[in-house]
Every structure is written in structure tokens, then in C-alpha cells.
Design a protein that fits this description.
With 409 residues, the chain is an alpha+beta fold. Helix content is 48%, strand content 14%. It is built from eleven helices and nine strands. The strands form three sheets. The chain has a four-stranded antiparallel beta sheet with strand order 2-3-7-6, with helices on one face. It has a three-stranded mixed beta sheet with strand order 1-4-5. The chain has a two-stranded antiparallel ribbon with strand order 8-9. Helix 4 crosses helix 7 and helix 7 runs antiparallel to helix 8.
């Protein structure tokens, strides 16, 4: 019997565990966040703690399995983070700047969690607070604030996305209320058993907002499968077939598309801030990886071309940070116009998309692994680039302002 020979195992073939959720990367190269009001900084710190304590441990698992972390909705409510800059009676003030910072930080953690707040607070809750009666605010708005009641904003239709003003879902007047018929698509929270704010045209062609219990007869919601982006929040394809909505569930302040547009306008900067959050996550992960990953006998960070790419990413990040902060200051002063909001969304999402692509490439093969953080943000940016108005639509809004000529069909 021959004696078994033991050979030394090479030490250099075992890949280390890379720490990409780093806290050591400087993310404010221009100092744009140094002069924040203490109250705004406190909101940011609260969102940062929530992201690290509650989101980081579960983000990959829920994203990978396309499951919805519904328990986080209640925790967001308990932390008073389901606000998006709104200050209902009895609640501590939350400025638009604080809302932007919270939005940025939650998306820095995970795009699905950030979108939960955008849908629940930015769209559904805002519709009720801006257009609802005191009774509706108390019955539905307050539970949404607390994270006890999921809220959906049902505007987009299968055949009307960018041209949402052309929506065709009908609200027919009957005794005691309305009967809804139509379909909606891409409705976040539309299939989780809460309340949907459904936008439809009445008998006179006016756009109305109606609160629909998702358990109502005739309300059928199918969770959309096989998404590439935002996999940990459920979007629904909704069919409304003879759904009766009593008068007390009709929003009294929602009587035209202008009321719908007012809600959407208030959230557009939120998408810009969300893009800053995704860009921040990709940038800090790329810097951390470049310092830890060794190739050709030295860290990637020692390479001139890598340093140039990181410098480019930092430049792009600083650009959209400054844009988001300045746009928010103008919003708080009542000076933000629709085209200016479109400029912020257009620039932030396309720039963040560039940062995400660069970071994905810099991580090489590891950049396509969803548990390496960057890949999830890279995929999620595709959704942000589209929703709340595509890049093309934002460009046409800006172009109309620049030229004085509308190029819309």
C-alpha cells in the first residue's frame, strides 16, 4: 500500500469576502451636505440607521426571491419614515430636504424598500392628504402613515403609460356612488390587500380619484412576475369589473387631471433623490472593491485607469447631488417649475445609470452577482429611469420650455 502524499494547497486561489456595504468611503466630495439643518440631518441619520439595521440584513434575500418584505412597511411606519415630506396634524415637521435625504438613503440601501415609501407615502398617502376629506384622512391616511394599511396609486393603464392623461378606466355614476370598469398596470402595492387610489374618468370625462378596498367584489389584482428590477416590491396588473365605490370613498378634492398631476409633481424630485441613492451605493461599492480586489500583484485601486474611472464616477455623483439639493431648495422656496423638476429627474436617473454601469463593469464577473450589491442597484436603476415619466417624456417637457414649442403628439 502506497503512502498518501499531501501537497501544499496554494493560498492565493481562495477569494476573500469583499465588504461592499462600507462606511469608509467619502460620499460628499463637494461638502454639499455639510450645511444641512440639524432637523434634516436627524431625519437622514434615522433613515441611515434603519437601512443598516433593518434593510441590509434582508435586502438580497427578498430581491433574489422576488418576495415582499411586508414586515418592513410596519417598521417604516414605526420609525415615522412613511412621510415623503408631508406633515399631517400631530406629526413632527418634515421638510422637503429631509424627505429627499430619506429617499436617497433608503434607495442607497435597496431600491424596492425606497419604492415602498415612494408608493405608500409619496403617491397613495399624498393623494389622500391633498384630496381627501378629514374623515378619509383619519380612516385611511393615518393607518398608511403608521404602516398598518398598504396603499396603492392606480393611474397607469396597460395601454396608457407615458400618456396617462388619456386614461380610459371609467367611473359610472350610480345611486350612492360609482361603478368602476377598466384595467391598471404596474401598480405598486396593488395586490397586497390594502387600499388603492384609482384614477378614472366619470360620465363627464373628468378625472376622479376613488378609494377602492382591494377586497372589493370585481377587483382582481395579479402580481406581475419575472421583473428584472425592484423585485422586492410587488406591482400588480389590476382588472376592475363593475366595482362599486360608495360616495364616502370618493376623494372630494380630486376632480381633474390637474389634481392627479399635483400629486405626481410633488414626487418627481423624489425620483431624482432615489437615483442619487443608487449612485451612492454603486460608487462606494466600487471604491471599496477596487481597494480590496488584488490583480497582477496589486489592488485594482493602484491602476491609473481604475482611478480615472472612480474619479469620473465621483464627478458624476457630485453633479447629481448638487442638482438634487439645489432643486429641493427651490422647491422649498416655491420656485421649482415643472420643467426644472423634469431636468432634475432626467439628469439624475441617466447619470446614476452611467455610474451603476461603470461600477458593474469595474467589479468584473463579480459585478453580475446580485449578492454583491452593485448588480441589484444596476438592475433597479432601469426601473427608475422609466417610471414617473420616461427620459424621453422629461426631455420633451424640457424642450417645450426651451423652445416654446410643444413636440408632444
Amino acid at each position: 500500500m502506497t503512502q498518501e502524499t499531501t501537497y501544499e494547497f496554494p493560498t492565493g486561489v481562495t477569494e476573500p469576502d469583499y465588504e461592499l456595504w462600507t462606511t469608509d468611503v467619502e460620499i460628499d466630495p463637494t461638502g454639499v451636505f455639510e450645511d444641512l439643518e440639524p432637523e434634516d440631518r436627524a431625519w437622514w441619520d434615522k433613515a441611515r440607521a434603519f437601512t443598516l439595521d433593518e434593510v441590509r440584513p434582508v435586502a438580497h434575500e427578498y430581491w433574489e426571491t422576488a418576495d415582499y418584505p411586508l414586515h418592513l412597511v410596519k417598521k417604516l411606519g414605526d420609525a415615522d419614515l412613511l412621510r415623503d415630506g408631508q406633515t399631517p396634524k400631530g406629526y413632527a415637521p418634515m421638510s422637503a430636504m429631509a424627505a429627499g435625504l430619506v429617499n436617497m438613503e433608503l434607495h442607497r440601501g435597496d431600491g424596492s424598500v425606497g419604492t415602498i415609501v415612494g408608493v405608500q407615502a409619496g403617491l397613495a398617502l399624498r393623494s389622500i392628504l391633498q384630496c381627501g376629506s378629514p374623515e378619509q384622512i383619519e380612516k385611511f391616511g393615518v393607518p398608511m402613515l403608521r404602516g398598518e394599511l398598504p396603499g396603492a396609486f392606480a393611474l397607469t393603464e396597460p395601454t396608457h403609460g407615458s400618456d396617462s392623461v388619456s386614461l380610459e378606466t371609467r367611473a359610472t355614476r350610480v345611486e350612492g356612488g360609482y361603478v368602476l370598469n377598466g384595467e391598471k398596470k404596474w401598480i405598486g402595492n396593488g395586490s397586497v390587500g390594502g387600499i388603492s387610489v384609482v384614477w378614472a374618468r366619470d360620465d363627464e370625462g373628468k378625472v376622479r380619484g376613488l378609494l377602492v378596498d382591494q377586497q372589493s367584489a370585481g377587483y382582481t389584482a395579479t402580481t406581475i412576475k419575472n421583473k428584472l428590477s425592484l423585485r422586492a416590491i410587488w406591482q400588480a396588473h389590476i382588472r376592475l369589473e363593475n366595482v362599486f365605490v360608495p360616495d364616502e370613498m370618493v376623494l372630494p378634492g380630486a376632480n381633474s387631471f390637474k389634481d392627479t398631476a399635483a400629486v405626481l409633481f410633488a414626487t418627481r424630485l423624489g425620483v431624482a433623490w432615489a437615483a442619487v441613492g443608487h449612485a451612492t451605493a454603486c460608487y462606494e461599492s466600487a471604491v471599496a472593491y477596487a481597494k480590496q480586489r488584488v490583480q497582477f500583484g496589486r489592488p485594482l485601486a493602484a491602476s491609473q485607469v481604475v482611478q480615472e474611472r472612480l474619479a469620473r464616477m465621483q464627478s458624476e455623483l457630485a453633479t447629481i447631488q448638487l442638482l438634487a439639493v439645489q432643486s429641493t431648495r427651490r422647491e422649498m422656496a416655491g420656485k421649482l417649475t415643472g420643467p426644472a423638476a423634469s431636468l432634475a429627474k432626467y439628469t439624475a436617473t441617466r447619470t446614476a445609470r452611467s455610474i451603476a454601469a461603470n461600477a458593474r463593469d469595474l467589479l468584473g464577473g463579480n459585478g453580475i452577482l446580485t449578492d454583491n450589491r452593485v448588480a441589484r442597484h444596476f438592475a433597479d436603476m432601469e426601473a427608475l429611469h422609466t417610471y414617473e415619466g420616461t427620459e424621453t417624456v422629461q426631455a420633451l417637457i424640457m424642450g417645450r420650455e426651451i423652445t416654446g414649442i410643444s413636440a408632444f403628439a
